[in-house]
Amino acid sequence: MIRYDLNYFRQLCNKQVSASSLGLFRILFGAVLAWKSVTYLTSGLIPWLWVYPDFNFYYGFFSWVKAFPEPVLYGLFVILLGCAFCIITGFLFRMATTAAFIIQLYFFLLEQAHYLNHEYLVLIINLLLIFIPADRCYSIKNRSAKNTIAFGYVLLLQLQIGLVYFFGGIAKINTDWLNGAPMNIWLPEVTDFPVLGPFFAEQSIALIFSYSGLIIDLVALPLLLLPKTRSWMAIILLGFHLMNDRLFQIGIFPWFMIASLVLYFRAGWPEAVRKKFMASTTAVKGIYTIFFLAGGFSSLFFHEGISAVPFLVTGLVFVMLFSAFDETVPQESELITKSSAPADYIKPGLMVFFSIWLFFQIVVPLRHFTIPGNPSWTEEGHRFSWQMKLRTKSCTDQFYTWDFEKEELKAIPRGYKLWEWQHDVMVSRPHMILQYANVLSKAYDNGPIFADISCSLNGNPPRRLLDRTTDLTRVRFTDYRQNSWINR
């Protein structure tokens, strides 16, 4: 039975499908990457994040990763912008995705206080695209008659992005979320939202948002994979992400997730729509144009400011959803042209790599279940687990060192050697507190460092985060097991 299942899985992954949806996703991914690059180049974030701070919080064994001079950092983002355009056009695709990954990984590792789930997601999708021939369609490089690709490549991206939804839902199954927190804190701050805003202060609305978000995340992947439900699920997710962008302004994440919807419909739908559009009457072309513009202009309502990428992404998804209900759109078999080129099979070594990759993408987000305590409080097992928009933490802190001459504790000025944004992140995260303690120790003659930190999580009464009698220079933080110096 196992052998049969493995054979079936291998056949499924190597099934030849149209490369057009993957090609369109490549274009949208490149557009999102270009948008990100321009944002960093024009917003002042580069010096604010990596030049002005006296030091940056590092990840694990990557303390050796240091910021280059400011002109070099700007130059790297210019190169990243160039890579994005190469990805869009398919020119030197493998080289462009590899360079883009290295640059993004460098900036990701530079500052742990800047960890964002969407930065991590874009990074790992970029890594996968290095091994996926997404330039098979809509590419200036590839002009061959071959227009097929192994379905396994598409399936890998579907599962990777679907796991973000699923584990985002799993993370929401906690006491605070089920009681409406932190939605009952955030929603009253946006009562200017059209029509619904005046009701956002009601606890019942916070509960509706909380439970609907939980359910949507848990069912998104299976319902997107099922042909009978994927269109309706995509419509729900489209509204879900548009609402999130309007309410919380969370950067490129909603638009990247909307763009990823193009992968879940039949692989040849972009080419089917193109053929349908080119062969249709003026009236039909007008209908498709209206749907594209309706989607594009809806993004202008939900997104703060005018941006081309949200307009393009939402417009194309509107067209995709309309075409899903249009029975006159050509079928998949009509889109695959016969070619003398060999079929595009996934090599066994690459299949093993993808399988191991998915295994770790499932295990890593589950690791916090093996550790006692709430990961939103202890931070143990929190990173890389798709625990998104689950918490609001407010903390008060005072760090001390020991004055050996006076034989008493000496208070250290608040935020010493930190920028305000770094301090606000650090003070609630034990693993970063330890790094900061070691910086303070070096500044105070290698003395011991103690911290009295109290935090309120999701509006609950404040309590001490750490054991204030612990010398923070003598303990370590482990992300995969309980740390005794953190209060449960």
List keywords for this structure.
488 residues; 6 strands; globular; alpha+beta; single chain; two-stranded antiparallel sheet
Q: Which secondary structure elements does this structure contain, and how are they paired or packed?
A:
Layout: H1 2-13, E1 16-18, H2 20-43, H3 45-51, H4 70-89, H5 93-110, H6 117-130, E2 148-150, H7 151-171, H8 175-178, H9 183-186, H10 203-225, H11 227-248, H12 253-260, H13 269-279, H14 282-302, H15 308-324, H16 348-363, H17 375-378, E3 393-403, E4 408-411, H18 420-426, H19 430-443, E5 449-457, E6 463-464
Antiparallel strand pairs: 1-2, 3-4, 3-5, 5-6
Explain how this protein is built.
By secondary structure, the chain is an alpha+beta fold. It has a domain at 392-474. The protein has helices spanning 2-13, 20-43, 45-51, 70-89, 93-110, 117-130, 151-171, 175-178, 183-186, 203-225, 227-248, 253-260, 269-279, 282-302, 308-324, 348-363, 375-378, 420-426, 430-443; strands at residues 16-18, 148-150, 393-403, 408-411, 449-457, 463-464. Strand 5 and strand 6 form a beta hairpin. The mean pLDDT is 91.
Spatial arrangement of strands, main beta sheet: 4-3-5-6
How much of the residues is beta strand, in percent? 5-15%
Main pleated-sheet profile: 4 strands, antiparallel
- SSE order, one letter for each helix or strand: HEHHHHHEHHHHHHHHHHHEEHHEE
Structural class given helices, strands, pairing? alpha+beta
Q: What is the distance, rounded to the nearest whole angstrom, between the alpha carbons of the first and last residues?
A: 46 Å
Using only C-alpha atoms, the radius of gyration works out to 25 Å
Task: Give the overall average pLDDT.
Answer: 91
Residue share in helices? 40-55%
Give me the count of strands: 6
Principal-axis shape equals globular
Please work out how many helical segments DSSP would assign: 19
Question: Which regions contain 5 or more consecutive residues with pLDDT less than 50?
Answer: none
